[in-house]
Specification:
The structure holds two protein chains of two kinds. Chain A is α/β, with parallel strands linked by helices. Chain A has 24 helices and eleven strands. Chain A folds into three domains: 1-148, 3-Layer(aba) Sandwich (Trna Endonuclease, Chain: A, domain 1), CATH 3.40.1350; 151-278; 279-535, no CATH class. In chain B, strands 1-2 form a two-stranded antiparallel sheet. A two-stranded antiparallel sheet of chain B has the order 3-4. The chains are: A alpha/beta, B mainly alpha.
């Protein structure tokens, strides 16, 4: 059954959508993948570059031929690219110098005639002193997939049902992270009753779950639903990190390879998103009659994701041509149009705030924060009928509440809001504001701030932090004293200590930020204070503690 | 399901059933840190009810029969929920000392004393946001009499007004203290 699913996925996967799972399989076979992204300086004819277990450099050219055969004619068209693959030396700094091995990878099958052509090409290249191009086709990929992935996939009916449910989705919707969470916790054995795994087993399970993510997100990839793919791969990375904590295994020895590949995929998806929007004047999507109801949250999300890409490119030094210009000048990237529709959206707005801070030397980004804090405080004081939904409720809840207000005669089941006067984000936002030194704005905000209960979820362990939902933790609501001093507030705002967040996640602030966007309930005050320190160089306080 | 929920709500009792329920999506408990730093943890508690249908009942198990079984379960769950609520309330009030024990019949003095102990906030127009009292039928009748007594006696009315003025002053002082100094 699971093999059939794998076969079905491979026969429908485009070149782009099987690249990441292919890299995961290479990694599990002992390769160190050093390049798999399309958006770093171009490696001619080489989609993937790795170092094999013997220390030799390997270059791979991938082609997507789902469910089809490569004929001799089609092969002839590929020859220029294959010559580049063989003839041009690898320039990547992490790859060893000297000759490299070349591989041509397809998820289709090569005709006999095409195989003769490849043989002839290899003989020709041998005469010039180059090594042969080895062929990896559908059968090999399937075998690898079965060995490394499917044999460890859950066979219990419930989880199998989840896999099938994800595979038959249209691919244009939001990625159902809750369902993926159930599958990943099963494969990675991070449920409460699961016993600790040994390193070998754990490594195989990490690869296996990465393949599973590739499989269940196949339709989303075919639809170029980049946000959905980002959500899925972020969840995979965080679960793999959490699982290494749970099993008390070294993250760097057992999971980092798979996570680096997934991060490359996330980076690529952000760039694809940018490529898609950069030339569009209008960001309207789908049915124009109803898009107005979804435009604002989508617009904010897009801004947030482009902001993450900007922060990422800034951190890694990889320049994305045209990104800064788009963020500075595109009529749709105006921050004035951003709309806070609920606490779920706060991490998105923070990504925008931190990007603004890097691009705008005026006090505008600080006032952006003042406005955001003001909105959160005012909303929380409105009472349960009008307050924002909390970080656990996405736009669909907000939308249902709007619908039930507009059409009371129809029974739209919007969940109840928390009973007012609480916020999950006010504390962190105020602390970020304190760091900017805007004392008067903080004083203005204080009366409303002190009227609220300040909520946060405290997981019991770093492994629990990485789960989408966990029983192991406490939801804490804190009531502050009505009067406080600026000095005390400054002292609290200086803290950059994380509360039960894995070290491996703290070392990847971009991933932590993306996790906060995908799962806003994990953007706790300590996480936001920590990220604020990473992304905002302005600091008008004593040294962080 | 909706029907069952509404029946549970009915059996929780008047007053309490108006309190909106909302989901706490994760964690084993909730905790509250008070202004003075006191930490109170409230573990999640389970309420459940089950019912039995004998195979001999099945031939006669029509809608009224099934509904009566569900009604029994809803009643049991509603009662458990109410008990849980009052247990928690009692623990909290015992801890803070916010308890007025009426000896026998409730008197106007008992009522005033309980008003003194509770916190009352005011809206932006200065109107008190009076808390809701949850009482049994006997106490309800007594409260009606107390209300009548206060309305008819100028002395008691001025005593009541005095308490409310004191409450308002306290609330205003609290609001004025909401500031960041230094």
């Amino acid at each position: 059954m699971l093999e059939r699913l794998l076969e079905n996925w491979l026969d429908n996967a485009s070149e782009r959508s099987y690249q990441s799972p292919f890299c995961q399989m290479l990694s599990a076979r002992g390769h160190k993948v050093v390049h798999s992204t399309r958006h770093t300086p171009i490696e001619l004819g080489k989609d993937v570059i790795s170092v094999d277990p013997d220390g030799g450099a390997c270059a791979f050219q991938l082609k997507g031929n789902p469910g089809s055969r490569i004929t001799a004619n089609a092969f002839r068209e590929l020859v220029p690219q294959l010559n580049q693959l063989v003839h041009f030396a690898i320039q990547h700094p992490s790859a060893p110098a000297g000759p490299h091995k070349s591989y041509f990878v397809t998820n289709g099958v090569m005709d006999e005639d095409a195989q003769f052509s490849l043989k002839a090409l290899n003989e020709n290249n041998a005469a010039l002193g180059h090594g042969p191009i080895e062929l990896i086709e559908r059968g090999t990929l399937l075998r690898w997939g079965v060995d490394l992935g499917a044999s460890l996939w859950p066979s219990e009916l419930d989880e199998l049902n989840e896999i099938l449910n994800l595979m038959v989705l249209d691919g244009s919707e939001e990625f159902p992270v809750e369902r993926l969470d159930r599958i990943l916790t099963s494969v990675l054995r991070v449920r409460e009753t699961d016993k600790k795994l040994k390193a070998d087993d754990f490594r195989r399970r990490v690869t296996s779950s990465a393949l599973l993510v590739g499989l269940v997100s196949g339709r989303f990839a075919n639809r170029k639903n980049h946000w959905a793919l980002i959500s899925a791969w972020v969840l995979f990375c965080v679960h793999a990190i959490g699982a290494s904590e749970k099993h008390s295994l070294s993250y760097s020895k057992n999971a980092s390879g798979a996570i680096e590949i997934a991060l490359s995929e996330i980076f690529d998806r952000l760039v694809f998103l940018f490529d898609e929007v950069k030339d569009r004047e209008c960001w309207v999507e789908g049915d124009i009659m109803v898009d107005g109801l979804f435009y604002a949250p989508r617009y904010l999300l897009l801004n947030a994701l482009l902001s993450v890409l900007y922060l990422w490119s800034n951190e890694s030094g990889v320049e994305i041509e045209g990104l800064e210009e788009l963020l500075r000048t595109h009529p749709n990237s105006s921050h004035c149009k951003l709309h806070v529709w609920g606490e779920f959206a706060v991490p998105q707005l923070l990504a925008v705030h931190w990007r603004l801070r890097l691009l705008d030397a005026t006090t505008f980004p600080d006032y952006f924060l003042v406005d955001l804090l003001g909105s959160v405080l005012r909303s929380a004081l409105k009472g349960e009928e009008a307050a924002f939904y909390g970080p656990y409720e996405d736009y669909s809840h907000h939308f249902l509440a709007m619908m039930s207000r507009e059409f009371p005669e129809r029974k739209f089941e919007a969940p109840n809001r928390s009973p007012g006067r609480v916020s999950f984000f006010a504390e962190a936002l105020l602390h970020l504001l304190v760091r900017t030194g805007m004392k008067q704005s903080c004083k203005n905000a204080w009366p409303n701030y002190s009227r609220l209960g300040h909520c946060r979820f405290v997981p019991d362990s770093p492994a629990d932090y990485c789960l989408y939902r966990t029983k192991n933790g406490i939801e804490v609501t804190t009531q502050v004293q009505p009067t406080s001093t600026w000095g005390d507030l400054q002292e609290s705002a200086r803290s950059v200590q994380l509360e039960n967040v894995p070290k491996a996640l703290a070392e990847r602030p971009i991933l932590l930020l993306l996790y906060g966007i995908v799962c806003p309930h994990r953007a706790t005050p300590s996480v936001i204070r920590f990220l604020g320190r990473k992304f905002n160089p302005c600091w008008f306080l004593g040294p962080p503690n | 399901m909706e029907w069952f929920r509404s029946r549970v709500s009915y059996h929780v009792g008047p007053g309490l059933s108006d309190i909106k329920a909302y989901e706490i999506p994760e964690g084993r408990s909730t905790a509250f840190v008070r202004e003075n730093g006191d930490f109170e943890e409230n573990p999640m508690q389970q309420i459940s009810a089950d019912f039995e249908i004998m195979t001999s009942d099945v031939p006669h198990a029509d809608f009224p029969f099934i509904k009566s079984k569900l009604e029994d379960s809803a009643k049991s769950m509603g009662e458990q929920q109410a008990r849980m609520f009052f247990d928690t309330l009692e623990k909290a009030t015992t801890k803070t000392g916010n308890v007025v024990k009426a000896r026998g019949r409730m008197t106007v003095d008992d009522f005033f004393q309980s008003l003194e102990l509770i916190e009352i906030s005011f809206d932006e127009l200065g109107r008190p946001e009076m808390p809701r009292m949850v009482v049994g039928q006997g106490a309800f009748d007594q409260l009606k009499e107390i209300d009548k007594e206060i309305r008819e006696s100028a002395v008691l009315r001025s005593q009541f007004d005095e308490i409310m003025t004191k409450k308002k002053r306290k609330w205003l002082a609290g609001e004025a203290a909401r500031k960041l100094v230094g």
